[in-house]
Amino acid sequence: MKTPLIIIIIAVLVLTVSFFIFTRTPVFVNNYLKIKISCGEVVGPALRLLKEPFTGARYIFNTYMNLIDAKKENYLLKKRIDELLLENQRIPELEQENRRLKTILKLAESNPGTSVAAKVIGEDLKNWFKCIIVDKGRDHGINEKMPVITPKGIVGQVVEVNKWHSKVMIINDTNSSVDVNIEGRDTRGVLEGTGYTVLKLKYITKNDEVEVGDKLVTSGKDSIYPKGIPTGIIIAIDKQKAGIFYDIDVMPYNNFKRLEEVMILRKR
Questions:
Q1: What number does CATH give the domain 177-255?
Q2: Strand pairing partners for 170?
Q3: Alpha carbons within 13 A on the beta-carbon side of 147
């Protein structure tokens, strides 16, 4: 098999170049250095151009990874901030509950053996009366017609009792009526529920002394509520109404939609 001519030519050229390099022939060496420098000048920029995309890609990748890390860190910080905000929101609620419990405890201590603290656990929406349900019943010595109060004032009276729970008719029920005095005045009337937030003070004649801002307390003459329990404050008087009685609106001290704890008073 014959060796191809091109291979023979290449081999001869390689041997010739190697010979001139080895013998450091001036003409060849000078030309070789020029060729080497020229190739470097041509190839160098080309290599730099080829390197730029890889450098840019590496920069973009590193930036992307840094953004991912920053996003993760921001998420964790935001989550922690949300947790701290929730904790801070609970602090006023806990403080308010603590104040209520302290006030009720003080009230119970001032009347030992005559009161039972109870927690409001629901509303009775099926009853004819507007009632709340508390977590004390017959086993705790609770009976019907016992008055129910808070540190702010009167709530209502017990109307139904079972072994563990009781229903309390609140004073804004239309079936509720409380005998009251106007505090600081020799004026007496009956506070009636309307089914709404505002109550009505009845049987105050136009000869009686009464003004907006007057405060009402129980008179103790209705056989249900002891004397002197705050009930509400007069917010409007219609003195132009026909007849002998004023039309008087009263705002109760308690917000019955936000009751948490109450005191049930045992009768002596």
A1: 2.40.10.350
A2: 156
A3: 23
117: phi then psi, degrees, rounded to nearest 5: -75, 140
Residue 114 has a pLDDT of: 79
Amino acid at 203: Y
The answer to whether the beta carbons of residues 172 and 256 sit under 8 Å apart is yes
Spatial distance between the Cα atoms of 209 and 245, rounded to a whole number of angstroms: 12
pTM of the complete model beyond 0.90: no
Q: Domain locations in the chain?
A: 25-110, 116-170, 177-255
Tens of pLDDT, residues 114-136: 788 899 999 876 655 689 999 99
Q: Rounded CA gap, 174 and 176, in Å?
A: 6
Q: What pairing do the DSSP bridges indicate for beta strands 188-192 and 154-161?
A: unpaired
Nearest to 138 by CA among 164, 115, 119, 169: 164
Task: Specify the fold of 116-170.
Answer: Thrombin, subunit H (2.40.10)
Mean pLDDT, rounded, of the chain: 80
**DSSP H helical ranges for 24-164:** 26-110
C-alpha span between 252 and 130 (Å, rounded): 15
Q: How far apart are CA 74 and CA 84, in angstroms?
A: 15
Residue from 241, 246, 234, 238 nearest 202 by CA: 246
φ, ψ (nearest 5 deg) of residue 239: -85, -5
Close Cβ partners of 163 (under 8 Å, ≥ 6 residues apart):
137, 138, 139
